Task: structure prediction
Amino acid sequence: MRQELNFWVIGGDMRQVRLAGLLAADGHSVHTFALEQGERPEQVREAATLREAALADCVILPLPVEGETGMLNAPLSAGRHSLSQVLDALRSGQVICGGRVSREAAVLAEERGLVLRDYFLREELAVANAVPAAWGILQRRGAFLRRPGICSPERGRRARPWRSGLPLTRS
Result:
């Protein structure tokens, strides 16, 4: 027998918007906060405040949890939200999942009696995240433009960004 859970997805980018949609599709109750600029399925409810977040079975924070020091990573939010403000709205003992949790964020959660789990410490997630992250970096570098020696679908050649002459490190 499947039990519906109450999830709150707070902050983040399109990965969190997609996660909210997947959880809702699985039949769970899903609320989002600080994701108002992302398109989400109609069964996902965007909350204007965190007043009911303390009722959640699980709160999911973004990867990484913090943007600027002390601030929630929320590029899809029209406003700025401090991590303290978010954690203050939750109840002691509540399960919170976040990615790349800083020492400061862990201390804030511990002070409030929250159970904070860093999902990015799971090896399978770190490895699975590395591939799209690498592709994104290469695309920003222009490694997949049609140039001699680079991926050419008409000729069936494979992408070889390391031969493009573009640096593969951050500048």
